[in-house]
Amino acid sequence: MPTRIDGLLLDMNGLFRHWHNTGARKSEQLAGLPEGTIARYAYDHPAYRLARVGVLTDQQWADDVAARITADFGPAAAKALGPWRTDRGEPDPVMAALLAQLRRHLPVGVLSNCTDALHNDLRLHGITFDHVFSSAELGVDKPSPHAYRAAAERMGIPAEALAYFDDEPTFVHVAQAVGLQAHLFTGPTDFIARLRSLGVTLDDARSHSRPAASRI
């Protein structure tokens, strides 16, 4: 039988924001780059991890991506990166509405493997949490146990009284090992059902088709 909770800690991407990579594809088309080039230079490169844990700022990382693309494809290719940089994903209106309800009942935090752009992105999308923890701010990213412990400590809630939801199974398993009441996020309907089992009263979610793309 689940224990009632004193707070919620939630993942960001795949729950409240969805990535379709339309900006990256547009930049690749403008620059004449092969599909997937930006992902390889941006997210598959070690510099992205450095930005995710706060060694590099988001802008420093983007400048590094542009410099490496310039070196390999020429300056014209780097000048076409605008659409990639301005694409900040798409907010999920169903989850945003649920978040507003949740914050009336208990404190809600977000724990995301993100660069220091997270706060600006939340403002852009009009999404408000009571606590915001980017991996860049914490200096450690999921699935390190230290990320979950640091978030719980800063929220002032014991791990066993904190529920955590993420769409990445590995991250859920580690959160459970740390002591959080962690659950795999599969969509708003199941999310509501699990919250109700934890004693949180919420309205039903409207029908929702969950996009597939998610950046952790």
Number of domains: 2
What portion of residues is helical?
A: 40-55%
Tally of helical runs: 12
Distance between the termini: 30 Å
The CATH class of the largest domain is Alpha Beta
CATH superfamily of the largest domain, please? HAD superfamily/HAD-like
Coarse morphology: elongated
Query: What is the CATH-assigned architecture of the largest domain?
Result: 3-Layer(aba) Sandwich
Counted beta strands: 7
Please identify the structural class as seen in this structure: alpha/beta
Arithmetic mean pLDDT: 93
Model regions low in confidence, pLDDT < 50 over at least 5 residues? 207-213
Described by strand count, sense and barrel closure, the largest sheet is:
5 strands, parallel
What fold name stands as the CATH topology of the largest domain? Rossmann fold
Strand percentage: 5-15%
Strand and helix order: EEHHHHHHEHEHEHHEHEH
Q: Major sheet: order of its strands?
A: 5-4-1-6-7
Please compute the radius of gyration using only Cα atoms. 18 Å
